[in-house]
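FAQ: What does the model actually see?

It sees only this:
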Amino acid sequence: MSSLSEIRAEIDEMRVNSIKFGNYFDEILKISMPYLKKQFSSAEIQELLNSLRDFKGKSIQEYVDYFDKVYCQMVKRQYQMKTSPNYDKDLCKFIEDQDSQIKIVWGDCLHVLKRMKSESVHLIVTSPPYYNAREYAQWDNLNDYLADMRDILEECYRVLDNHRAFVFNIADVYDNDNIVTRATWGKRRIPLAAYFIKLFEDVGFTFVDDFIWDKGEVQTQRHKHESKPYPFYQYPVNCYEHILIFHKHRLDKTRYPCPICGCLKVNDNSQTEIGVQSWECKNEKCFQRSPAGRGKRFSLLSNMMQRHQTEDCEIPKQLIRKWRRDIVKFPPVIKINAKGENILGHTAPFPEDIPEMAVLFYSYPGEIVLDPFAGSFTTAIVAAKLGRIGVGIELNKHLFRESAIRRVKRMTQQMDLSGKRVKFAEYDLTYLPKVNRQKINKGEKQDKGGNINAIARKNA
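And it is asked to produce this:
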C-alpha cells in the first residue's frame, strides 16, 4: 500500500504531465521533462510551470529565452540555499531592492560578505587599503594583512556570480613588512600586486589581465640623485599602479538549456576553458545542426555573452580605444584644493576611470556591482550613473560618512538634473564585533565583546 507522501507525489506528477500551454513551451517540456525531474522536486517543477503560464511570446526564440531565464533562476536559488542557507534576509532584501540604486553598507566587509547570498553580485570592483599606507589601515605585519585579505577574497569569490569578473586596483608600497625586523633598515619595496595575484589564484580566481595605470609625470623631486651619478644610487620613483582582472569560473556540471531550441537534452562536451563547462544539444529537432549532424555547442558563459549583444549593452568606441593597450594613462584624483583642503574627505580617492571601464566592460544594465572597500563610494556612484545598482561596503563610518553622504547627495542631484532618477540608502552593521587582524584606529573604542565605533554611531 502506498504512503500518503507517495500518493501525493503521483498526483503531482500526473498534474505536471497533463499541463499544456498551447505554445512552444509544450515542445520544450515534452523533451526536457525527464531532466527537469532529475534537477527539481515535484513542487519546484510546479513552480516553474506556474512561472511559464502567463508568458506570451512573439517568437520561438522568446519562449526559449524565457524558459532559460526561469530555469537558471531556479538553479541559482538551489545553489544559494545549499551554499548560503543562513544568509541575512534583511541585508539581502536591502541590496536587491530596486528602489535605490546606490547602496551604502557600513561595517567590516568580511562580516557583510558572510551575510550575503552566494553568487548574488555580478561584478566586483575595488581598491583595497594598501598595507600600512594610511592611519586607518594598519596591521601588525604583512602576514596579518595578507591573511585578512585572503579571508575577504574567499568571501568575494563566493558572492560573485559564476563566470564573472573582479577588477582590482593595487600598487606596490615602500614599508617595513615587520616580519624580519621592525627597525628602519627593514623597509623595502613590497610587491603587493604579486602577492595579491597569488592570493586570488589560491581562492579560485583565474588571472586574466594586468592593466598598468600610468599616472603621468610625478611632481616629487625625490629619486633624482643627480649629486651621486654612480651605480646603485639610482632607482625610479613609482608612477604607476596595477589594475588586475580576474575571472571566476566555478565548474558547474548542471545541465543548461540549448540556446536555440530551449531543450535540456544536451550532453557535456568537455570545457571551453578551465572551469567553463561546454554542452552539445542532442535534440534531433533542434533548429541548428552542423553539416555533419552535430548539435549546437554552448556554455553558460557563451549564452550570457551572446544574449547581451544588444544596443543597450554596447560599449562606447571611445572607451574601447582608451583601454585598447594594457598601459593606460590618466591622472589620479586631485583631492587637495588651492587652500590645502581635502575636498573629497578621503585620503585615497578612487578615479572614476577604473569603475567606468569595469562596469561597461564586465557587466550589463540593471546588474549589481559591489565594492567591498568603498571609501568615498566612487564605484557605487559610477555604477548607478551607468544604469547598474552600486553597492559599497565601508568600515570607517566615523571617518568617511559625512563626506561620503555629501558626495553621494551631490552626485544624485546632478543625475536628477540630467533626467536620471537615482536614490541612495544606508544599512549599518558597524555594531558587529571586530573579526579581522587590523589594528584599532585612532578615535575608535572597542568594548569587551569586540564591538567598535560605538561612540561614532551615536554621534553620526
